[in-house]
Amino acid sequence: MLAEQKRGIHVSQVELLCKDGCGYYGNPTWQGYCSKCWRKRTHKTETNRQENEFEEKKNVEKGRRSSSVMRLFWGSPSPPRQESPETPVAALKAFQSLEPGDFPGFLKVLHSSSSQRLQSQCTAFLNTIEAYHDLPIQKQSDLVQDFYQNIADHFSSLPEEQVSQMMEHIEKLIMTHLHKWVFCHDSCDDEQKDLTLQRRIKSLNWVSPQMLCVPYPNGGSDISDPYLPAITAIIEMDAKRAPQDKLACLSRCSQNVFQALALTNNQPANADDFLSALVYVVLRANPPRLHSNVNYIIRFGLPQSLMAGESGYYFTNLSCTVAFIEKLDGPSLNLTPEEFNSYMQGRRVPPQPLEGDGKKRARENREQLEELKKRQESVEQGVRALQEQLEQWVHCVQEQVDEVRGQSTLVHRCLAEALEKPTGNVRDHSLSALKDGVDQRIKYKESS
């Protein structure tokens, strides 16, 4: 069925790469370029040169004034304090001994005396950004990216893999503190775009896996949905503060998508299968503040995390997914414009999937349980009726026994009085026989 339909979502590996041919992943937000090439294109060389000249002049003037003040009070400037050459070496060795992902260990080394210079740089940068948090968001993004580049030089003597690990720790440290200042910043329209995208996804809640050509088990429900772990993972992305933690949620979501495709498809998943399934997951999840999260990762994430590797591939596909949802139309779902508009306006509902064996068995089990429940209620009702009848019978018998006992007591009393009077033998024999008859009747009533 899926093979007969023309897939509306198609993307090749080449289309995911940067338009400049650098070999890294591009992004629709950067008009198909990677972050490195995009920054080169958007930042004019002349503007940078002028800003650098202005900064140099300002630093020279500031240094001149400082030297004048120092000479005024101290006579001559004191030489700068020299840092022991063994101190940075010891710090680098401590950083190098850390296990991958050991962020608490990184913080412990950072707060040690051997890493005082690096700690001071991080603290000064955080204070600067917090003090100037009203700057435009793009300017703050440039400052953070420049800070990453400067700090990377501090670890330049380490192997490349360890440099990446140290920069991930630096990113987590910096952005965990700056998240409240730069996420969904007032200088941009991320919040409005979040609401627009959320309404767009909500209006597409009728899109079925079959329309997207997503391999999906027949008769599936929310409980048996193989994509449910992926949906949960991408929803958790908004709760994270560091860009790498958000990318970790996306990676977990994407891996769950591939696992679901492997369970529902007999052949290995390709790029089109993955992208279609990711579109379905996003439509089902409708993640909170998705647009803001994507832009936050783009602005403040490490460039190497977005340009290459699994995280870069997954993030590029997520960006393509958002762009696809924003432009989704009838031909993308193998629908005519009239059918697409009917679904969007609620005048038409998608056909229900065929009932599979698992759902059929579940339905039969539910019917059997309902039948057993009805039979149990009927039995319980009969038991209650029988119990009421038994109680009535016992009550009736008890009344008869009490009545007979009352009569027998009266008869015994009369007989006793008659026996006390002197009479003939025949009369005594008759009274004794009458008494025996009454006793037997009482015993018969009690036994019944």
TrEMBL record:
* Repeat is among the record's keywords: no
Q: Name one GO molecular function term.
A: guanyl-nucleotide exchange factor activity
Q: List the residue ranges of the region (Disordered).
A: 344-363
Q: Has the keyword Zinc been applied to this entry? A: yes
A single Pfam family, by name?
Answer: zf-A20
Query: Keyword set for this entry?
Result: Metal-binding, Zinc, Zinc-finger
UniProt-recorded name of the protein: Rab5 GDP/GTP exchange factor-like
GO annotations under biological process?
A: vesicle-mediated transport
Gene Ontology cellular-component terms for this entry are: cytosol; endocytic vesicle
What InterPro entries does the record tag this protein with?
A: DUF5601, VPS9, Vps9-like, VPS9_dom_sf, Znf_A20
* PANTHER family, per database record: RAB GDP/GTP EXCHANGE FACTOR, RAB5 GDP_GTP EXCHANGE FACTOR
Under Gene3D superfamilies, the record lists: 1.10.246.120, 1.20.5.4770, VPS9 domain
Q: Which organism is it from?
A: Electrophorus electricus (Electric eel)
In the UniProt record, what gene is named as encoding this protein?
LOC113576939
Record-annotated VPS9 domain positions: 191-334
Residue intervals of the A20-type domain: 12-46
Q: Which SMART domains does this UniProt record tie to the protein?
A: VPS9, ZnF_A20
